[in-house]
Design a protein that fits this description.
By secondary structure, the protein is α+β, with helices and mostly antiparallel strands. It has helices at about 1-10, 20-25, 55-70; strands spanning about 40-45, 50-55. The chain has a two-stranded antiparallel sheet. Strand 1 and strand 2 form a beta hairpin.
Amino acid sequence: QIVQAFEKVYPKINLQRADFEVITKLTYQDKKNQDGAVQFSLLEKIGQANYNQSVSEEMMLESLIFYTEI
């Protein structure tokens, strides 16, 4: 349901696996990060988010792979 909602609003970006390392490295520059940990706001469901969630680089890579496969 979340994927379908996003697809209606945001156009899909064609990412290559070669881009993944650059993308994950750039996330470390975000001002919301704390003590070197990348922080995200993650959707639980439409209208409900979990804020300041620490995400590992492995999870970011898994998410990018998922995104390229939808």
